[in-house]
Design brief:
The complex is a heterodimer of chains A (291) and B (388). Chain A has 291 residues and is mostly helical. Chain A contains eleven helices and two strands. In chain A, α2 runs antiparallel to α3. About 3% of the residues of chain B have low confidence. The chains are: A mainly alpha (291), B alpha/beta (388). At the A-B interface, α1, α8 and α10 of A face α2, β7, α7, α8 and α9 of B.
Chain lengths: 291, 388
């Protein structure tokens, strides 16, 4: 009984850690520019595909991840500069449609570059399962959870300690005031896109040995990340992380105890419930729209 | 005046060009070409099936034309890519029938695409040879519809036959929520009843799931299960296989013919060792005994395919090859491309050795394969190995 529950929890936390990273990406961009970036899943895909194909052609893994990360950051900046920045004054819905367009475009380009096959990336430290109180997990799961944890702490420090981080926070609180104190708001937006692209890409690389990578892998991960971000309260970093873990665990428990047929539905039921009953998410600020 | 002059010039130019191009294109043009239409899912989620199919159709149409065609008539191939969408498959079928005026259609990579095309070919009366798996395509028998691959029902039967010989009677099923998986599940349920196998677990997973450990944990904790069967396509079964080893489940693992390509072994890696599945003779061409009637066809096809595309042969490519060959063989026997005669000739296909097995069709059987066409294979040291 207990081993079963533990197994579900471990599975849920592994996949939840990835949702958390994706959700954090949504939050960072939303903070800086109030854009909900639906191309977030594509950053994950770029990281996964780049590291899988580069290692297959002989590049050492850390370098491959680094290149994938750099590539994703570049793509992130380009999306911000040529798609989002140009439509600065457009409505939120228009901006969302633009990012959806960007994600479809990126998927198409990725298919041209990498083809349609699934790519395999070897697990970072072997595939011998680790036994733990009757449950078992892949060593790669530890990598996923560990990497997500380190990145989440790093992002926290970045916002608290660095000037760029503070500039992004300031912009998110009040764009005009930030501009008045001399913050280059445009660059803040670019930096936020680059940052969340890098996050996504690293996430994609560590999760690739578990899920395989293919050009469409970002769709579902992006949607679940969005659910995580909304659940935690859009723009609330720690909230997105908690949201991701909750969604992951809820899915695993749902598949285990109720029925696996409704696994994906769990995330969407959560998002509907949140939007209906607590539109600001679990940790979001109360909506005080000042006029 | 001027307009009429221009028209005359244009007409004579066209006439001159057509007259010139005639002798240039060789003897095969002596008669009308045989118009073969094809709809495949060369892109989209089923592209790992449709892409090899498309390549093989083009390759063999070309080879046949270079060798002088069929009865001196060239094969003219028109291929459309439905991208895995059934509605597109339907509109392309319409186009093949109405504007391209094809004599026979090969294709429908997936069951969904095939079933979308079926009413159209039935109404228009065009022979149609599907490349998809589900048994619903040929049961009930439709006048104009045939198919080449083994059915999901046969896969279930073969697996249960193997289970019986190993002394197992209690099966845990894990099927995918795709069309293939759903149909496979239904067939497994039906066959299990007939064969006296008890289904002790009936779980499903999503085609794009990245983690199936919850479902497998349930199966692991089910004391009754003696063997596990997975019904799915693409990367899903590979994820299942990895999770299966991760959880250290000791029961024998069966997969369906949906994973009978090297891709599966490559993705699942070491976790695939010991997995059993029913597959066409094509994947174990070199291991077939010399007396096997299929031996020559499959080794030759493998060689041509691998030399031409520099990649591992795929059973799905074999289905397309079989479809094209059955159609052209029927053209020969029908003495032309009269659609009704062509249909009858396809239905009378007898002892045709293809990559999927020896095909003998009848008015009641529009697939013509028996369970003997399936071989039980096991993954050993990263390759398929024939189970004796």
């Amino acid at each position: 009984m207990f081993a079963e529950l533990l197994q579900y929890l471990l599975s849920g936390l592994t996949i939840g850690a990835i949702y958390a990273l994706a959700g954090l990406g949504f939050s960072i961009i939303y903070n800086a520019s109030h854009v909900i970036n639906f191309a977030q899943g594509e950053f994950i895909m770029i990281g996964g595909m780049a590291s899988a194909t580069l290692t297959a052609s002989g590049v050492p893994l850390p370098l491959a991840i680094l290149i994938g990360c750099g590539g994703a950051m570049l793509v992130g900046v380009l999306v911000a500069k040529f798609a989002v920045e140009r439509a600065r004054d457009a409505s939120t819905v228009t901006l969302i449609i633009i990012t959806i367009g960007a994600s479809i475009f990126l998927r198409g380009v990725a298919e041209l570059v990498w083809g349609k096959d699934f790519k395999r990336l070897d697990a970072f430290s072997g595939e011998t399962p680790i036994q733990f109180l009757g449950a078992s997990m892949q060593p790669q799961s530890l990598w996923v959870v560990g990497t997500a944890g380190v990145l989440i702490v790093a992002i926290g420090l970045f916002f608290a300690k660095t000037l760029t981080g503070k500039a992004i926070l300031a912009t998110s609180h009040n764009r005009l005031a930030a501009q008045l104190v001399g913050i280059d708001v445009k660059r803040v937006v670019l930096a936020s896109f680059a940052l969340s692209a890098a996050l996504g890409a690293v996430g994609g690389a560590v999760v690739a040995p578990i899920t395989f990578s293919y050009t469409e892998m970002g769709i579902m991960l992006g949607l679940k990340g969005f659910t995580a971000a909304v659940l935690g309260g859009l723009g609330h970093g720690p909230g997105a992380v908690a949201g991701g873990l909750i969604v992951g665990v809820a899915e695993a428990l749902g598949a285990g105890y109720i029925s696996s047929a409704y696994k994906d539905a769990v995330a969407f039921v959560i998002i509907l419930a949140v939007l209906l009953f607590m539109p600001n998410g679990l940790f979001g600020k109360r909506g005080t729209e000042r006029v | 005046m001027r307009r009429r002059l221009l028209a005359t010039i244009a007409f004579s130019a066209i006439a001159a060009v057509t007259a010139l191009s005639g002798p240039l294109s060789g003897a095969a043009q002596a008669a009308d070409p045989i118009k073969v239409g094809a709809i495949v899912s060369a892109t989209g989620p089923a592209s790992f099936l449709g892409d090899p199919e498309k390549k093989v159709l083009e390759l063999y149409a070309d080879r046949i034309n270079k060798a002088g065609g069929v009865d001196g008539r060239a094969v003219r191939l028109t291929i459309y890519d439905d991208g895995g969408a059934a509605d597109k498959a339907a509109s392309f079928t319409k186009r093949l029938i109405e504007s391209d005026g094809v004599d026979v259609i090969v294709g429908g990579t997936t069951t969904a695409a095939t079933m979308a095309a079926v009413p159209l070919v039935e109404r228009a009366g065009v022979p149609f040879i599907s490349l998809a798996g589900a048994v619903v395509i040929v049961e009930p028998v439709r006048k104009w519809v045939f198919k080449t691959p083994h059915t999901d029902r046969m896969a279930a039967e073969k697996v249960m036959e193997d289970m019986k010989t190993r002394g197992f009677t209690k099966l845990a099923l894990l099927s995918e929520d795709s069309g293939f998986g759903k149909s496979g599940r239904e067939q497994t349920l039906a066959v299990a009843k007939e064969r006296g196998i008890e289904l002790v677990a009936d779980e499903t997973y999503g085609a794009k799931d990245t983690d199936v450990t919850p479902q497998l944990t349930k199966i692991r904790n089910n004391a009754a299960a003696q063997a596990v069967l997975v019904f799915g396509l693409g990367q899903g079964p590979a994820v299942v296989t990895k999770n299966y080893r991760q959880l250290g489940i000791a029961l024998p693992l069966y997969q369906s013919h949906g994973v009978a390509s090297k891709e599966y072994i490559r993705l699942a890696g070491g976790a695939a060792e010991g997995v059993r599945l029913p597959a066409a003779g094509l994947v174990v061409a070199a291991q077939l005994p010399d007396g096997d009637p299929q031996k020559k066809v499959v080794t030759e096809f493998t060689k041509v395919y691998e030399d031409s595309f520099n990649s591992e042969v795929s059973t799905f490519a074999g289905h397309a090859y079989d479809g094209l060959m059955i159609a052209l063989d029927a053209v020969k026997r029908a003495g032309g491309t009269d659609k009704a005669k062509l249909r009858d000739a396809i239905e009378q296909t007898t002892g045709h050795v293809g990559t999927g097995g020896t095909v003998t069709m009848t008015a009641k059987d529009h697939m013509g394969l028996t369970l003997d066409a399936f071989h039980m294979v096991e993954v050993r040291q990263g390759d398929w190995s024939l189970v004796k």
